User: Which sequence fits this backbone?
């Protein structure tokens, strides 16, 4: 199991229609084959300067690579992530 | 539900007895009342400069506060975390 997470802050104002559109349209990622346990999260620690997170799991590295290369992921990164995300940090976990 | 995570790098050399001792002794945190789904994880993204992670869930903020104030947590932070952790980032999530 590989848990892929990304914590991020949008360029959009909190509560704006653009923010809601981004978070809603991100659900396309959940439908990419191999994606398990997809979650959209709010980051709430005052010690972290990020507002949101996505978390998903893959059975193995092949499934993770397939997701990364999937046209819907490539298009989301190009058309939405890059223009709309202010800063982010990827963190990927496997069991110890 | 609140998911409390911390991603970190130890001062110890990879594979050292001190590293193993820290990761093993951290299991004391799992036994603190209110802690659910405790996980010790390896951080594997080349885009994140951290080696390990802990993840746990709490039913609510009261359970999270109780964990933070628990003597076993306070002692672990004072006696192990502060002297042995090189850098870390807390990230806490709630459902969107």
Assistant:
């Amino acid at each position: 199991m590989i848990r892929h997470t990304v914590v991020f802050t949008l360029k959009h104002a909190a509560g704006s229609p653009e923010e809601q559109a981004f978070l809603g349209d991100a659900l396309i990622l959940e439908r990419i084959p191999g994606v398990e346990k997809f979650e959209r999260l709010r980051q709430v620690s005052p010690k972290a300067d990020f507002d949101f997170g996505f978390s998903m799991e893959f059975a193995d590295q092949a499934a993770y690579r397939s997701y990364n290369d999937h046209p819907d992921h490539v298009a989301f990164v190009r058309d939405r992530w890059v223009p709309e995300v202010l800063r982010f940090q990827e963190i990927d976990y496997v069991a110890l």
Summary: Residues 3 and 93 of chain B are 5 Å apart (CA to CA). The mean pLDDT of chain B is 98. The two ends of chain B are 11 Å apart (CA to CA).
